[in-house]
Amino acid sequence: MEPDLHEPSAGISGPGNSRKEWKHPSDNWMRGFILANRAALGTLAVFIVMMAVFMTANPTVFTTWYLYSSVLTTLPVALFVVVPLVFVVTCGEIDLSFPATMGFASWVFALVVQAGYDPFLGIAAAIATGTLLGFLVGSLVVYGGLSSLIATLGMNFLLRGLIQIINEGKSTALTSLADSWAYKIFSSQLYGIPVQIFWAIGFVVLSALLYNRHRFGAQVKVVGDNPDSAQQMGIDVKRVRVKVFVFVGIGAAIAGTFSVMINFTWWPTAGDGYLLPVLASVFVGGTPTWGGVGTVVGGAIGAVTVSFIQTGVVAAGLSGFYVQFFNGLIIILSLLGHKWNQARYR
Amino acid sequence: MAERLIELRDISKSYGQVYALGGVNLSVDRGEVVGLIGDNGAGKSTLIKILSGVVKPTSGEILIRSQPVTGWSAARSRDAGIETVFQDRALAVQQTIVRNIFMGRELTGFLGWLKVNKEIEEARRLMREIGFTSKVFTPQSIVGQLSGGERQGVAIARAIYKQADLIILDEPTTALSLTETAKVFHFVRQVRASGRSILFIGHNIHHVFDIADRFVVLDRGKVALTADRSQVKSAEDLINFMEDVAHPGGLPGLHDAGDAEHRAR
Fold first, then answer.
1. In the predicted model, what is the mean pLDDT of chain B?
2. Residue A242 sits in a domain of what CATH number?
3. Between B264 and B198, where is the model more confident?
C-alpha cells in the first residue's frame, strides 16, 4: 500500500494498516469517459433535445431523406474550419480571417481548373495557398505582436478586398469539374449519401487524435493554458501559435474547394457566409473562450447542431423569420449549459 | 565527504552602480538540503538567477562537481542538473499532472504521437519517488483540483524527471497552510533520500529551520552566516542572529523588548 498524503499515518506502515485495495473513481472506464468528455457529451445532449423539439413539431418531414441529404452536403464545409478553430481558441487566440482564406484558396483552385489543369493539381494549389495565407496571418499576429481578434478581422477584409478588386465581382463557372475524377472522389454520392461527409468525418477523427494524442495538441493546450510556463519548459510558444493559424489556413482551403465543387461555380464571396455559424459552432461545441481546454468532437457536434437549426426551424413548420431567433437561443442555452457543466481551474 | 555538487566562489553582480551581490560564497553537496534565508532585497532572486544561468555574474567563479566552468548559461545550468521551481509554480492548471510533468518533453513515438500509457507509468513512478501518492488523485487528475502543496509536488516531480541533481525551490511554502507546508516538506525529504540536493529558499525562518541541513543567511548582497544544523539550536537563534545582522548595535526599542522578555522568564 502506498503512503497517502491525505492520511495522518502517511508513510507509516504497520499491522492493521492494510486495508482492501482502493480504486480511484475515474478508474471506472464509464465514469472516466464521461468526466473526460463532459463538454462534448453536453453538446450532444443539446443537439438531441433540439432535434426532439423539431421532430415533435412536425414528425413527417423528419422522415424524409432529402432533409438530411442537404445538411450533409453543406455541413462538411463547416467542419473543415470548425475543427482547426477549436485548436486556435484552445491556444488562446481567435481567427476571423478564415472566410477570406476560403475564398482566396478556392479562387486559386478555380483558376487552375479553368486553365485546363487537373482538379487534383487545383486542390494541391489551393492547400498550398491556404498554408501560405495561414502562415502569413499567424506571423502577423505572433511576430507582429498584434491582437489576433483585430488583426485577423483586418486580414479578412484585406484578402476579400483583393479578391473583389481583381475579379470585379465576377464569378467563375467550372462546368468541366462534373466529369473529373476529383469530383467523383470528393463531391459525388455514395449510396445516396453525399461523399463529402465521409471526408469530413475522417478529418474530424484525425484532428481529434491530433488534439488528444499528439505532441501538437498537447503543446497547443499548454500554450493556451500558461504560455509563460510553456516557454520556461522549452516549448517554442511562437512557433506553436503560428502552427495553429497554418492549420486553419489548410482547413479553410479544403473547405473552400469543397464548396466550389458542390456548386461547380466559384463566387468572389465564397466562404463569406461561414464566419458567424462556424464561430458559433466552436463555442456551442463546448470549447471555452479562455484557452487551454477544448473539444474537437464537441466542436463537430456543435457544427451539426448549428447546421440543423435553419433546416429544422423551416421543416418544423415555422417561417424563416424564426431562424435567427433560434440560432441565438441555442447559442445562449449551450453557453449556460457549458458554464454549469465545466469548472474553470485557476 | 559527500560530493560537492556546485560551488560559487566570490560571486558579485552589479547592475550599473548598484551591487546586488558582493562576493558571495555558497556550496551545495549531494543529498543535502541547504536553506537560504534573507529578507526582501537581500539578493536571493539574483542568486537564483545566477544559479539557473539566466543572469551572468559580474565576477567570481562557478564550479560544478569541483570543476571550474566557463561560459555559464541557462543551457549549461540545465546540463549540470540544476532545475528551478519558481514561486509562481509555472504549472498549466487546466491540464493533467501527466501533461505538466512532460511539458515540452512529451514522450512521443512515430511521427510525434504521444506514448500515453508510458507517460502515465513514468509519471506514477516519479510521483511515488517523491512520496506524492494519494488515492484522491491519479496522474490524470487536473492540476487545478490539487491543493497548493500538492501543486509543488507536481513541479518537483517535473524537475526530477529532468534528471535534476539540484532543485532550487523558490519560496515553496509562502502562502501555504500548515498541512500544505507539511506536504512540501514530505516531498523535500523524499528528494533528499533519493540522493538529490535541494536549495530551499524562504523568508519564513521557521519553515527553513525545520527542513534544512545547513543554513545560509544572505543580507544586502553578502553571506552573513553559514551554519550547520548542529550549530544552531533553535529557530529563535537564527531569528536573533538575523536581527543582529539587520540592526547592528540594535534598535533600542526592539532589544529592550527582547531583554524584558528574557528577564520575565
1. 85
2. 1.10.3470
3. B198
Query: Domains in chain A: how many in total?
Result: 1
Contact yes or no for B105 and A229 at CB 8 A = no
Q: How many domains does chain B have?
A: 1
CB contact under 8 A, A4 and B86: no
User: Is the pTM of the predicted complex or chain greater than 0.90?
Assistant: no
Provide the grid cell at A295: 473539444
C-alpha–C-alpha distance, residues B202 and B200, integer Å: 7
pLDDT tens, position by position, A269-314: 999 999 999 999 999 999 999 999 999 999 999 999 999 988 888 8
CA distances from A274 to A81, A102, A279, A280, B155 (A): 9, 9, 8, 10, 43
CA distances from B19 to B8, B13, B52, B199, B217 (A): 17, 6, 19, 23, 17
The shortest C-alpha distance from A101 to chain B (Å) reads 28
Inside any domain, residue A12 = no
A19 pLDDT more than 60: no
Closest Cα in chain B to A232:
B90
C-alpha cell at A331: 447559442
Interface confidence, given as ipTM, is 0.85
Q: Do B134 and A5 touch (CB under 8 A)?
A: yes
Q: What is the pLDDT of residue A9?
A: 47
Across A206-223, average pLDDT: 96
CA–chain centroid gap for A258, Å, is 15
- Contact between chains at A226 and B108 (C-beta distance less than 8 A): no
Q: Which residue segment(s) compose the domain that B183 sits in?
A: 4-232
A162 belongs to a structural domain: yes
Q: Which of A3, A226, A345 sits opposite B133 (nearest CB)?
A: A3
